[in-house]
Amino acid sequence: MANLFEQLKRKNIFSTGIFSDPSLALLQQDFKTYTPEDYKVWEILFEKQEKNLPGAAAKEVISGMEAIGFTSKSIADLKDASYRLKVSTGWSIQVVPGLLSDASFYNLLQNKRFPVTSWLRKLDELDYQLEPDLFHDAFAHLPLLMNPTFTRFLEDLATLALRFIDNPLAIELISRIYWYTVEFGLLRENNGIKVYGASILSSSGELNYCLSETSLHHDFEVEAVLNTPYWKNKFQDRYFIINDFEELCKAIPLIEEQLEELLQKAG
Ligand code: FE
Question: Does 44 or 5 have the greater pLDDT score?
């Protein structure tokens, strides 16, 4: 541990502003802490969702899933996944204890580090957990981080968020963009609708619901997304569809412009 701390200090990692709490830099996944129940939980969730992906997930998610190397038989190895991401898009994984402050979260993203928790939900809460666990963070988020266009969007959105980090209204509005894309985004593919949002990919219930006739679909429009609040404890009222990830990158200047307008109106 001491050696790692020295190495990180030499890399000047603490003075770059990535970690408001330097102890975060030292966190690592510890396989010794996983119980047989943890392995069972990973296996059940993985096998259930793996079956759902073909036909429902965007092709970038499916190719990313193959490239990241996860299997049902072993809990995701974050060191290995981090290495694969680094080679592919230059991103890496930062193990975190749980939800972070907005500043820490966007700081990590801006530095091409994705925060991932290492704990797993319990067997009696397979379908619902209050906070994101390893299954959500790794299985549902990491495959798409193999895509350089998507990671460029994440980085640019984080840079924008950090510009407004002291303004709670701006951060709430930016979180709507994050929510309806990174967590609940849908994508048009060969005339069909596919899923790329991580919160949908890690929930079999919402995966079926969001692609059903009963859910509301809209084309992704910055103004509409900025004006749509979201739900944390039930399925979303509506979902926004993009044509490709380039569309998200191109939306960044418009997000900035409309954000400034909305903030001005709010006084
Ligand atoms: Fe998430």
Answer: 44
**Residue 207 alpha carbon to ligand 1 centre in Å:** 15
The CA 101 to ligand 1 mean position distance, Å, reads: 14
In angstroms, what is the span from residue 9 Cα to ligand 1's centroid? 29
pLDDT tens column, 177-216: 999 999 999 999 997 999 999 999 998 889 999 999 899 9
CA of 35 to the centre of ligand 1 (A): 24
Of 95-99, 120-124, 128-132, the range with the highest mean pLDDT is 120-124
Please list, in sequence order, all residues whose beta carbon lies within 8 angstroms of the beta carbon of residue 171, skipping any fewer than 6 positions away.
Answer: 102, 161, 164, 165
Q: Which residues contact 196 (CB under 8 A, 6 or more apart)?
A: 57, 58, 60, 61, 144, 150, 185, 186, 187
Q: What is the pTM of this model?
A: 0.91
Q: Which domains does the chain have, with CATH numbers?
A: 2-266 (1.10.800.10)
The rounded Å distance from CA 210 to ligand 1 centre is: 17
